[in-house]
Amino acid sequence: MATSPIDFASMMPQVAVHLLGEPKQIAGGEMRYGTHGSLSVNLEDGTFYSHEEKAGGGVIDLIIRQVGGDRVGALKWLEENGYKEPFEQQDNVRQIGDRRKSVSIFYDYCDEDGAVLFRVEKRGKGLFPPFLQHGPDGKGGFHAVPKCMQGVQRVPYRLPELVRADPGEIVFLCEGEKDADRLASLGLIATTNPGGAGKFTTGYAAKLRGRRVILLEDNDDAGRNHVEVAANSLKDVAAVTAILKLDGLPPKGDVSDWLDAGHTVDELKALAEVALKAGDATETFPLADLSVWDATRATPKSFIMPGLVPTGELTLCTGAGGANKSTFGQQLATCCAAGRPMLGIDVVQCPTLYLTCEDDEGRLHWMQEGICRAVGARIGNLAGQLHLGSLRGRLGNELATFDGEGRLRPSPSFYQLRATIVRSTARLVVLDNAAHLFAGNENDRQQVTAFVNLLYSLCLELGVTVILVAHSNKAGDSYSGSTAWLNAVRSQIVITRPDDGLDPDERVLTVGKANYARQGEELRFRWHDFALIRDEDLPEEKRGELAESIKVAGANAAFLNCLRARAAQGEGRGVGPASGPNYAPSQFEGMPEAKGFGKQALKAAMDRLFSLGNIETYSYQNKEKARSVTLIREVPDLPRMPSRTLPEHASRTAPNAAPNTPAHTPPPYGGNGAAPQAAAPSSSDRSKAAEGQGDRGVSAKGMILAPGESDADPVPGWEEDRRPRF
């Protein structure tokens, strides 16, 4: 009997895997091996080629290359390994060849960021088992060996496309990867689970939380069981689910067979909408089970930072520019990560994430050193617990956009944020700030509420606490934009400067809105050496120096305010520097502008202001008495209240500062500053800068003045060797 020719080409895919292992890549009809794909196997013609050796051939040549021997030995190897029947059975070769023509297909299962976690192999026709799962081999590839999937995260198929899809789009849950890919190629959102029918678990269901899900039923018992298991897992997780059995399916038929029969994707979408509406009619809001309540004890709301930041909620942290909102957020994240008190208050220790859109990584590092020094922590010890990220200069930081009908659409950045939270295991997330992350109209109540609810979805789904940093408006409100910012959140904290303004570094934190704490509670602290600290936590010597500095600044300000009040009253109300009827300290004592300072304190202030050049004497000709009188006036063309304070995100080091001059320390009797260390931002400086009126260079006092809250403009005088070190 004549024998059929042996189809060696059809054997190549499996022989190559047998001899060379799993390929590094399968693309364009080729399997690639080697670090740089130096050996390729052509799946169509069954040949291989080594680009390094510049040699190749067919199946027999590959066996000789890998095993050795000659053609006879290669044929024997094929027989011994089941790829070829012995010679006396050659009349069955055609059947064997046909059976082995099917090439394995690999499906990659990826995490949210697209990194491959594991692979599923659909094997050639007639092979058992028909599917194999390939886990990481520890060398950058994947292999199918016993226990290779131990410890591997299981995820739904096509997860990156799923998480980036419009939450309102229908998700089609298929029984296999082939059908999911078919629907995806038609522009639909489709997924499946590894392991086959009936293996859909609550873990996969969690990725479909809040989604509209259609369960496509294959026409067999396994298909019916599969959708029932999936529907049970998705209960109370998906927004709405519906099982869709397509008419006219052949036995064991699926959605691909239905499409092959001439049906269209529009028909499928229409059927899905009808099914979901029918399913929606039976859906109700989740209601509390009072019998369970009766058997359990209610627990009070827990806090990340007691009285200020409730757990599992969105807290709005607001304040004027330069109020140190960013510092507060970064320092709270540090304290929670390190398990250290925050401004004297014990906090919950947990992994944290702080993301800023305003500071670059260098600035984050600079601030982190000051914060670690203040709380007594080392940066290296926080690795894995504190996660800091800069999004400054990155396009597309907005977490959502709004369509023409005002509906919110989560952006890719939102899904990146979610993935970052999951990967970092953070339990406290600080987002700085709303101006960069919210791309809608802050005066639109609907858009603001939708955005707040989007952030709340992270709290509900991932169990995190979120702090959103935001600016207050120029009108003096504690927020900017619609009242929905306050109505939608359950917690707000406000950071301000004291009204008297005598100490530019002092801060007051108040509870603006508190559904879970007492409104109006306040916490006082100060900006000091690039961190926030309570006065009682400063060394006693420093506290004394600080108190004296504040007293001096207050007396200086009181004297100048009195002088301005008298000058505003017109000629004849001037005051002089020498003892007599119009002696300035005597005249000023008792004025409301004197703030209770006595004559001696006002005299000392006058002497200091003369020394600093803030005031001067001049001769006034008294025509009624026909004599000249020496009076005091403010020096013209100088700021009335010279500020040594800087915007929060600017350098505090004066350019070309003398090596022996302590950085950031004001003269003990100079200006209006109070703190003996790094000065905090001045809201007046910030507002002037924003209007283009502020000094954009170096002031007369040698301090750097920045134009706005961020350090977008180059800051001169940054001396790396003078940076504070922990």
TrEMBL record:
Coiled coil: none annotated. Pfam families: AAA_25 (PF13481). Residues 631-726 are annotated as: Disordered. Residues 653-663, 674-684 have a biased composition (Low complexity). InterPro entries: P-loop_NTPase (IPR027417), TOPRIM_DnaG/twinkle (IPR034154). This is AAA family ATPase.
